[in-house]
Amino acid sequence: MAEAASVPSNNRPYADLPPISAALFEAKARKGLTFDEIAKAIGKDEIWLAAAFYGQAKFSSEELVKLAEVLDIPTASVQNELGAHWWPNRGGLGPMPPTDPVIYRLYESVLVYGHAIKAVIHEKFGDGIMSMIDCKVNVTKKPDPKGDRVVLTFDGKFLPYAKW
Amino acid sequence: MAEAASVPSNNRPYADLPPISAALFEAKARKGLTFDEIAKAIGKDEIWLAAAFYGQAKFSSEELVKLAEVLDIPTASVQNELGAHWWPNRGGLGPMPPTDPVIYRLYESVLVYGHAIKAVIHEKFGDGIMSMIDCKVNVTKKPDPKGDRVVLTFDGKFLPYAKW
Amino acid sequence: MAEAASVPSNNRPYADLPPISAALFEAKARKGLTFDEIAKAIGKDEIWLAAAFYGQAKFSSEELVKLAEVLDIPTASVQNELGAHWWPNRGGLGPMPPTDPVIYRLYESVLVYGHAIKAVIHEKFGDGIMSMIDCKVNVTKKPDPKGDRVVLTFDGKFLPYAKW
Amino acid sequence: MAEAASVPSNNRPYADLPPISAALFEAKARKGLTFDEIAKAIGKDEIWLAAAFYGQAKFSSEELVKLAEVLDIPTASVQNELGAHWWPNRGGLGPMPPTDPVIYRLYESVLVYGHAIKAVIHEKFGDGIMSMIDCKVNVTKKPDPKGDRVVLTFDGKFLPYAKW
Amino acid sequence: MAEAASVPSNNRPYADLPPISAALFEAKARKGLTFDEIAKAIGKDEIWLAAAFYGQAKFSSEELVKLAEVLDIPTASVQNELGAHWWPNRGGLGPMPPTDPVIYRLYESVLVYGHAIKAVIHEKFGDGIMSMIDCKVNVTKKPDPKGDRVVLTFDGKFLPYAKW
Amino acid sequence: MAEAASVPSNNRPYADLPPISAALFEAKARKGLTFDEIAKAIGKDEIWLAAAFYGQAKFSSEELVKLAEVLDIPTASVQNELGAHWWPNRGGLGPMPPTDPVIYRLYESVLVYGHAIKAVIHEKFGDGIMSMIDCKVNVTKKPDPKGDRVVLTFDGKFLPYAKW
Amino acid sequence: MAEAASVPSNNRPYADLPPISAALFEAKARKGLTFDEIAKAIGKDEIWLAAAFYGQAKFSSEELVKLAEVLDIPTASVQNELGAHWWPNRGGLGPMPPTDPVIYRLYESVLVYGHAIKAVIHEKFGDGIMSMIDCKVNVTKKPDPKGDRVVLTFDGKFLPYAKW
Amino acid sequence: MAEAASVPSNNRPYADLPPISAALFEAKARKGLTFDEIAKAIGKDEIWLAAAFYGQAKFSSEELVKLAEVLDIPTASVQNELGAHWWPNRGGLGPMPPTDPVIYRLYESVLVYGHAIKAVIHEKFGDGIMSMIDCKVNVTKKPDPKGDRVVLTFDGKFLPYAKW
Amino acid sequence: MAEAASVPSNNRPYADLPPISAALFEAKARKGLTFDEIAKAIGKDEIWLAAAFYGQAKFSSEELVKLAEVLDIPTASVQNELGAHWWPNRGGLGPMPPTDPVIYRLYESVLVYGHAIKAVIHEKFGDGIMSMIDCKVNVTKKPDPKGDRVVLTFDGKFLPYAKW
Amino acid sequence: MAEAASVPSNNRPYADLPPISAALFEAKARKGLTFDEIAKAIGKDEIWLAAAFYGQAKFSSEELVKLAEVLDIPTASVQNELGAHWWPNRGGLGPMPPTDPVIYRLYESVLVYGHAIKAVIHEKFGDGIMSMIDCKVNVTKKPDPKGDRVVLTFDGKFLPYAKW
């Protein structure tokens, strides 16, 4: 647990987030908590929680109360900034194409496998899409003697195209 | 099984692929085969096979022979166009941001969940990336009474950043 | 009814569509039919039909048969090009921002009213989106002595954001 | 009704709006009013009102007086910032293509249905456009057992192209 | 009058126009006619006529007949390509920003004088725009001993912004 | 005449202008003067004056003195910021393509009529351009029972291309 | 003198030029002539002549006759393609930023020295520009024992900004 | 000599330069010195000096001492900001394509004459480039009764391409 | 060793880095240390160290302690800003294409030699890539009487493409 | 050695190269030669040779003769297309940012290590650049039990910035 921790709030992506976001990240670092630990405390998954830290999801009022508690920050300030009146302005956290290699590799998956994924979805489901709204995202660590592996899963509802 | 089938070879993405690619797609349609059926015939996964159809992966010489056989097209023509001398020029099949809604949703996953995925990878693995080279991609259909779901999985090796 | 009609198939958007698309447009012109008349003949709405002409929707096999009939073109050729093996590669028909004033005005509606629409959707429905997949689009003419009006309606399912 | 509420005024879109805009949004949140309630109080529609909050429309002097009253903020400050000398600098509130999924879906409607809408407008009205200046925009909620629907309507004057 | 004349139909802007457009330009050159002479023959202004040559305006059926006559080309071919079924797909003839110095100077007028023009329009007319649909464009030559001057005039209807 | 007036100096275009520019706009609002009234006071045209307010033209020393006088602001401050050492850094006040509908319509005139204007200039003047440096710009109001019209005129010197 | 010579007419920049341009370049290669030799034969400078070969300048009728003669190609074909009816569509020959290192260095001169050149022009001439229309461009070789030097000169008329 | 002078240090290009740069420009204005006068005082050419003011060149330690002296500003502050540890981050001072007409004309020279210059360099020197690193840039005023001319010269070393 | 040194922390790339980065660069300048000297003090290579200064690599806790020591800055402040909770957000330090000539030349190596490097890697290693994650970068000075040479080496692991 | 081999000459990068380039690649495949073997036959390095195949370097007349010989293709056709009159139009072979993962990793090296490389070059050499013109590029295979490594070396002349 760090005694003090700051994030570069004048840098991206923090500069593009509500000021309270920097406070959330700093409290997380000071408390020495993982996303998973915080997520469990408020009854959510770690990826969803991390997305919410980055302003990409909306906490309910109850979740904000629990969040303030687990992070030891005033409830009022999270309610004031991320309360019922706040809505995520999703995306827009960094450049596209991404310059960070971790995020770029995700982008590259669209470049290289996008058409294949589309073709197989059509073949298996018909004309429609995998929803990115009704979609759960998950990252797990798969130990492997040749080098651990990241297993990233998207579980999204199939939406058939309307015809009218 | 269609008696005849053509793909718009002067349109994207076909226009950006070797001419043999259109022939592969047309043979697949004429034979009424799924990617999975062709993939099984040459001992590969359907997503890898579909990627190879879109010029995003390289068939071995043995795979080309089996491919020609299962699709009933002359071996010589696939060897001539996609043989040992041919190397994938990956990516570049369509615009970025994608305009097709299926592919755009994948792109949107990077916009919305990219930072969360990166943060959790760092927390679980340290400073490094999920490889998109040593990575297997999979699409499965998960039946659900509220609407079937697409489960899309990336299983990629974690690569720690070199320090020297 | 024109005796002959051609569309500039080497120009956008025709050049970005399957070759059969030009044939559909030319047959429509030769037959002197409106989108509405063709749509009625195959049991669809005119906007959906027009979208399908522009390669933005997928005809079923039955619809292709009726289409060929109403347009007096060989069924085989539409089946060959737009049959079960063909999937729309949506979007990508023209530049964005659009240069054509009709389409630009739609784009401008996003620029000027996008945030207001988003804010009111959130207020009325909560955190989620209006689906553009399960969405019906409609254009009607509203006579007005000061100048007729175009009434353009999108009727799309609200999709709440998944939380997990 | 929140006791306090803030919006991230150093973030987009607030950072691109006159400083008074953040005050309007915060007062709305503190008063617990909907766009519709505020709109009714000044005799306007909710979408127009929301657009004006986002700097996309111009309040008349009388509307500013009523707005200050319903929101309990000093008339002088709204007059000082949004008075007769202020003109909307429309558009430019966020990136294009939009990264927020709500707004992106509107953008996608242009990608997918733009040409169809243009073609049907031409067929029904002739050579011209749907005005986005003399246009009213409306969002309503249509209850549906399979999931409520958003009905978004644009009612714009048809403008025939000048010939001279 | 040239005996033969060709335009580079595989180059922009001709490559982005219906094939008949190249024929119109070549006939004009062969006949040695100015835009003004052709325009007069069909009862239009030279700028409108030139715009129509560049696919930016729609000839009526009567105008096509007269056009074919004055240019000595078959009526059928202009009717076939530019008849009732053809609608202008405006804009998109060249890169933006323009690279050609003549067109770039027009673009530069927007860069340098755009805000001033907007401010004066607001001051003189209120909140609204100058229509580019109900607008007539004119180019005249003003002799001047220090060098002749180009007088370019846009005469467009003022459209006040709708409030609702 | 407003008692107080402010412009959003942290917003575009003000944020891209010298700080004194905001003071000029605010003084103009407080004094209740039009561009035309200020222009007359310093012996210039209103469009030129408005352009200078937007940092697109250079006041002479005498003009700065008169400007300070008519706006009731200290001469020293305009001389300090816009004096002999200041040179316009023209353009760059907003995005291109413009998002504001007023300015976009000017941009659209280049898209739609640019080639026609170029072609007629060549036909009337030969190979060269209309100067946007030695060019006077003018906006007038033309009353019309069907709706007043904006008449926008560019009067620019023709410059023949050098040959050497 | 080569017996045969071809240029890749399906590649840039040839693909963006009138077909006759490839013929000019090929004739030049076959005849073994330099730009300077051809230029002298038609009474022009080599840079102007090279620009004309690249479609960036307009030959007079007399110059076309001499050009055909010196290159031993039919006068009719140059008249047919580049005659009185042809006007340069300048710029647009390659990507910007340029990818070719020779042209990129010119572009880099604008990046690095553009503001300095502007500042010195203002200091020496006042508010205005160096014309790129009334401008002569010259390249000479300056022998230097440490490596020969390229001397590139632009001699352009100063144009003072209009005030009105 | 102005008693006070400021430059808009929150505007481009000043905002993209070290803070000391604004101080240099303001001191130059207060002292009433030209670039040439300052350049002579430190033994350099005026274009090089102006480039250095714009952060595009590196002063030696001795030059900084002389510069502080001629501009009457503390040596310590220029050493502190532009001393041995400071290296130019060249380019990036403004948008590309440039919006300012003076700088745009330079950019236009690349568009219009870039290929001609490249072709003549190749013809006179072989396969290689004109260095923009070992290059001297010069602006002189050439009086002309029809209007003074700007003569802009680049004198750069020819660098042949390595072959290995 | 400078007594004082500052870097333009409101300029790129410093403005895009954590605030502590400016402090690191300033301490390095004050202490008069090279990257190599600092790198040796913490047991790393100079290029890796320089990359870490630019926020492109992650210091371990031990390295931060040594870094603070060698630079004479408080350990707490580097731990607070660059400690365990901080992860590099790589890339994004400047525009692409780069405008700085040093960095542009690296970019140009990709433009000119990228395909050749890819082709030779494929020929020597098969279908795969050179890792930029498991890669060491080195810059050395090779004295040469005709001018010293920069030898830049990338030593990266070959990663074969997964097939599955 | 393949009996027949073709490359997709209508795809990038072949479509952007002279037609002879496809013939060179096909002959290389038919003869079963590596770049290294061909390079040795004409006395050059394999990377240079590969670059020349991709149109990024210029063969001398003698090299063309040897090339034709080793590839068993007519000397006349390479002389006709790539002879003395042909000059490389470097760069422009594919999109930037690159979409192919091999080439993207090179691009990523600029993103991640560009500033570090620049800083160390300045520290070791002073103000200047590493030439990409007088630069030799080399790829070697370094066997490694944990996976072979690609060693990519750039050996470029340091060019100090001119001061004048």
From TrEMBL, chains A, B, C, D, E, F, G, H, I, J:
UniProt protein name: Cyanase
Organism: Leucogyrophana mollusca
